Each structure stands twice: as C-alpha cells, then as structure tokens.
Amino acid sequence: MDKERIQDLNELVGQILSASPEQMIELTETLHPVDLLEAILEYDGDKHPIIAALPDKIIGEIIEEAEDADKFTLLLLITQNRRKAILTHIASDELVDMLDLLTDEEAENILINLNKENLAEVKSLMQHAPDTAGGIMATEFLAIDEEMTVYETLQYLQRSGDRAESIDYLFVVGVDEVLKGVVSLKDIILSSFNITIADIMSEKVISVKPDLDQEEVGQIFQKYGFSAIPVVDDEGHIMGIITADDILNIVQEENTEDFEKMAALIHNEDEYLESSVFQLARKRFSWLLFLMVSATFTGYIIRGYEDALASIVLLAAFIPMLMDTGGNAGSQSATLIIRGIALGEIKIKDWMTVFFKEFRVSVTVGFLLGIVNFLRIILIDGVEEWLLAFTVSLSLMLTIIIAKIVGCSLPIFAKCLKLDPAIMAAPIITTIVDALSLVIYFQLATTLIKVH
After folding, report:
1. Does residue 183 contact residue 164 with C-beta atoms inside 8 Å?
2. What is the 3-state secondary structure (H, E, C) of 56-89?
3. pLDDT 10s digits, 410-423
4. DSSP assignment string, 293-325
5. Contact criterion met (CB below 8 Å) for 65 and 92
6. CA proximity to 243, closest of 172, 97, 128, 140
7. What is the pLDDT of residues 94-140, one digit of tens each?
8. Residues 6+ positions from 341 with CB-CB distance below 8 Å
9. Half-sphere exposure (CA, 13 Å, Cβ side) for 142?
10. What are phi and psi of 172, to 5 degrees?
11. CA-CA distance, 9 to 189, in Å (whole number)?
C-alpha cells in the first residue's frame, strides 16, 4: 500500500476518533463500509477506541464486508454488552461463513450472543453443506402475498425493508405459502396503488433446491442475469435467497481454487504476503512430491531404450521438444474443457462430441507441426538422414494426437467420478503425456530405423 493511501486512512481514523455524534452521522453517511473496514484493519494503534466510536449498525455493515477470518477478529474488539446488538445487523449467511472457520469454543462464544430469532436462522443454515445453495443463502428476505395491493406492498417495504438482504426482487407466495412468482421493485413503483401483486408478478420464477452445488448456482446467475434467486424446499416453500454479491465471492473463490489445482497447489486461505515461507512450502510440497515420483516413470522408459540411444545418439536431442510439445498440447485441450465444464457449456454426455472434435483438431495441428518439424530438421539442423527426421516428425504428430485426447478426456472422467475437473490440469496431463510420448518415440525409432 502506498504512503498516500496510508496517510488517507490514518486521517480517516482521526476523524472518527474526534467526531461528535452529529459529525459521526454525516461521516458514516458519506463513507462506504469497505473504506471504514480498511481504515480499521490498517491502523497500527489501538483499534478499540475506533470500534467504540462507531454506531452499532455501521459496525455490523463493516463486519459484513470483512473476510470471514477478519470478522471474528473484529467481533473480539467489541465489548460483550454491545456484541448482541451488533450481531443483529449482520446477515445470518455471513455469520455462518465465519462460524465455519472457528473452533467449537470460539463459535459458541458467538452463538450465545445471538437472540432467539437469529440463533434459529443460523442453526438452520448450518445444517446445510457450506458449498451448497442452502449453505450460502440468506434467510433475511421479504415474501409478499399475491393478494396484496401495490399500496400495501409499499407500506410493508417501509416497515420491514431494512431487515431484508435485498429488495430488488420480491418473491410472491400464495395462501399455502408456496412460491408463486416474482415481482421487481421497479414494477411495483411504476404501478398504480390499487393493482394487486398477482396482476403484475411474473410466474416464470427460477428457483433452486438447497442441496444444489454453489458452482451450479453461479451458472444459473450467469445464465439469467438475476440479482437474487430464491431457495425452495421440495414442497415449493421459500427458505431463503441468494444474492448476486454472494455469488461474486463464490465465483472468485472457485476460480482461485481451480487455478491452484491447475498449478498443483493446495488451497491456501491466507493472502500470499500474509503467508509464512513454511506455510507456502507445505502447500506445494505434497503435489510436487507426487509429480516427482510420477515423473520417474519417464526415466525408467528411457533406461529401457538405452541401446537405441547408444546406437543413434541424436535421438536424445529431440526428447525435450517432443515432451514439451506434447505437454503443451494436452494442457491446451484440458484448459478449454475444464473451462467449458465450469461454465456449464460441456456436460458428461458430450464426451464423444468433445473427443471427435479434439481428435480432428489434433490431427490437423499434428500434421502441420510434423511437416514444419521435418523441414526444420533437414534444412536448419542439417540432419541428412531423412528417415530420422521422418521418425521424429511422425512421433511429434502422434504425441500431439494422444496428448489432446488425454487432455480432453481426463477432466470429463474426473467429472464422472464427482471430482473437480481442475485437478486434471497441466501437471498431471504433462506427466502422463511425457511417458506416452517417449514410448511412441522409441517404438517408432526401433521399428523404422532398426536401431539395436
């Protein structure tokens, strides 16, 4: 962080500490909770006076904006007498996310400060897996009756709107409390007071079940562009809502985890600069150990063809090119397929379509690269034995075909086994393709060139 930004944050802390009650109202109305959060976290001095100076509602908003690990840190700065009041201003889904990171003793220290209503909501959410729709939904929502008029709805919003997670869309229920439709706040504002909600609502409401994976929920948001989606039980009763800002955080987390898996890294909750050297090394060691042991198979393959290498030493010169090209070709296919699966564009049932498409692509790319490589070996490298150049080029073409087939198949295979396709990325693909490319290369060399 630059010095100018640090100075601005310190000045903001000074304004908070010296503000009168009237000035504090004006100050908090003009500042976003994220800026206040940053000022508190970056302040090197005692943070307790800052927390004591801010109103309960603002503290609740600040904690909601904090990372899950920082939420608990901020709550510990609050006196026991204030904590119960502040917790009422924090959404239940945000509290559950924080509680998932705490020990049983720490979680209990928070739960005892919740009122009966909030405690029931939090415990209800904790029954769902954290990476499902039920685990990320908020129970603070407004449901309206289809028989209510626009005027009655506006009155209801004025009375209760501040306790809802979002009021961009209002979900409509019938007499049996089953979800009937949805109406936007815009439609309500633009309609006449005496019109009933049933007349302006849309019955084309998209909902999700509580056990749906959060990644699939994100795909639904992306497909329809909603700002909120209701979660319903098997009977159609609305249990909660998921908002777009929840999904943005989840998409960021899922993308981060996918990138880490594709780079053979174990997920790290802490930011890079906040992680110790030992912590970073521990997260990388196990995967690197596995890949190192796996790579020893390529050494065994090369040992098995020592006679061929001794007969034509030049064969060894082309091994790095074959292995690198094969690994790169496989990684290209795997990256595209993993992305397609993540976005919902590719399903398990599309395997044959993907296979034949990648096969045709690999034949085309392999043939062109093979020709270029043959000419390079003859014209640039100056190798006079055309049969050796042909062997290397044919090996390159077959390696690319095998690599792309492996690269497109393994992520789908992982999906079939209910594993994250991202684990079948560059490191694993490269290890497999390296071994296969060597076998192809030496088998062709021993067959075509007749080496002993």
Report:
1. no
2. HHHHHHHHHHCCHHHHHHHHHCCCHHHHHHHHCC
3. 888 888 887 777 66
4. HHHHHHHHHHHHTHHHHHH-GGGGGGHHHHHHH
5. no
6. 140
7. 888 788 877 888 888 888 888 888 888 888 888 888 888 888 888 88
8. 411, 412, 415, 421
9. 23
10. -105, 135
11. 39
